[in-house]
UniProtKB/TrEMBL annotation:
InterPro entries: Rossmann-like_a/b/a_fold, Universal_stress_UspA, UspA. Residues 1-135 form the UspA domain. This is Universal stress protein. SUPFAM superfamilies: Adenine nucleotide alpha hydrolases-like (SSF52402). Coiled coil: none annotated.
Length: 142
């Protein structure tokens, strides 16, 4: 197949399980894996004292989450990562469009109970994706 498989992560155990599934699918398909972490707003905080100050933004935090997951997945495939602004489903879909992804992988964490009524990232992605969507079973990851 080749192409790109996109997976959204947020640092949770369920997102990690979805990323592992995405890695396995990308490996089997000979595709690149693109790990995405979304951030809603780009707030910034300054840490430190005196001349030793660091600016940390939501975008930086999201990129760190994506990089950490990408770095720990291993495997014999090309893995890229990015932080994307916006609500998680919108950010994942936008990245999939930009990468011309062949597949998006999301976890099913909030597809039961109240999450099912209010909506979930998996539900939004499945209904609006520009490509195929694989919904990984992540219920036992917590």
């Amino acid at each position: 197949m080749s192409g790109t498989v996109v997976v959204g992560v947020d640092g949770s155990p369920t997102a990690r399980k979805a990323a592992e599934t995405a890695r396995d699918l990308a490996t089997a398909l000979g595709a690149t894996l693109h790990v995405v972490s979304a951030f809603d707003s780009d707030r910034s905080d300054v840490f430190g004292t005196g001349s030793n100050k660091w600016l940390v933004s939501d975008a930086d935090k999201a990129e760190q989450v994506a990089r950490t997951v990408a770095d720990t997945l291993g495997g014999n495939i090309n893995i890229t990562y990015a932080a994307a602004g916006g609500r998680p489903a919108d950010a994942i879909i936008r990245e999939a469009n930009q990468k011309e992804a062949r597949l998006i992988v999301v976890g099913n964490r909030r597809m039961r109970g109240i999450g099912r009524v209010l909506g979930s990232v998996a539900n939004s992605v499945a209904h609006n994706a520009p490509c195929d969507v694989y919904i990984a079973n992540t219920y036992d990851a917590d």
